[in-house]
Design brief:
Layout lengths: L1 H26 L4 E7 L2 E4 L4 E10 L5 E8 L6 E4 L1 E4 L2 E9 L5 E10 L8 E11 L1 E8 L3 E2 L4 E11 L5 E3 L4 E8 L6 E7 L5 E7 L4 E7 L8 E2 L3 E5 L1
Parallel strand pairs: 2-9, 11-19
Antiparallel strand pairs: 1-3, 3-7, 4-5, 4-8, 6-7, 8-9, 10-12, 12-13, 12-16, 14-15, 14-17, 17-18, 17-19
């Protein structure tokens, strides 16, 4: 009886020890608490490349953190080995070039604790890469117009094409907004579609003095744009 009792205690102690080891291993697994990627929208333009910074907060036991940047569709790639700036805080940067694929990009984070038995921690966040838009040469055909007469608003919409130049953006909707003299906000005043070379025009009937503006809403690939203003005095 005494011998059996001793063996039973031995088994119990062994199990407790194993449980303790398992708990310790689990506690040592890497954990990703938060990820911040800046900027959240990268705008491609004549500048050759834009810096993307990744900041990660992890459990203090984490030994190694990397980030991979890839577009959901198309070509482009970035890889960062993040540096620990203080316990549990990691940071690193890479570039997205002006010829890389626009659209949604995945930033895949991988954190490792070399002493843990469990798997690495991973997390994915998404950013946008968009090409720049130029909404230029916006003007009114006359700055002084008699009430009831027509005048023309015009301008040019161009897009960054990913090969070192801006080109006319045909077939795009441009909206117009008007802020009457003394008002604080703009009101919608119609739209038009761009033609050859991205040029657009719209005839307007003069009714009140104020300021005109053209806008492009943007898309998943191109940024939104707002033109300079054109003032018109109606008399």
């Amino acid at each position: 009886m005494r011998k059996r009792l001793t063996m039973g205690i031995g088994v119990t102690v062994c199990a407790a020890a194993l449980t303790g080891l398992s708990t310790t291993a689990q506690a040592r697994e890497a954990v990703i608490t938060s990820v911040k990627v800046t900027p959240s929208t990268v705008v491609q333009s004549t500048t050759n490349r834009k810096t993307v910074t990744v900041q990660v907060h992890t459990s203090t036991e984490t030994d190694h953190v990397t980030a991979t940047l890839e577009p959901v569709k198309g070509s482009g790639f970035g890889f960062i080995v993040l540096k620990q700036t203080s316990p549990g805080w990691w940071s690193g940067s890479d570039f997205i070039y002006n010829y890389d694929a626009p659209g949604a990009w995945n930033v895949d984070i991988d954190a490792t604790d070399y002493e843990a038995d469990g798997p690495d921690a991973s997390k994915t966040v998404q950013i946008s890469v968009k090409r720049n838009i130029s909404l230029s040469k916006f003007k009114a055909s006359s700055t002084k117009v008699k009430k009831g007469r027509k005048f023309t608003l015009s301008g040019t919409l161009k897009r960054w094409d990913g090969s070192y130049q801006y080109v006319g953006y045909k077939g795009q909707k441009v909206t117009f907004y008007f802020k009457k003299k003394g008002a604080k906000t703009y009101a919608y005043a119609g739209s038009t579609t761009t033609g050859s070379g991205g040029k657009f025009t719209k005839k307007v009937t003069a009714s009140k003095s104020g300021t005109w503006q053209a806008r492009y809403a943007g898309s998943s690939i191109y940024v939104a744009a707002v033109s300079a203003t054109a003032g018109v005095t109606v008399h």
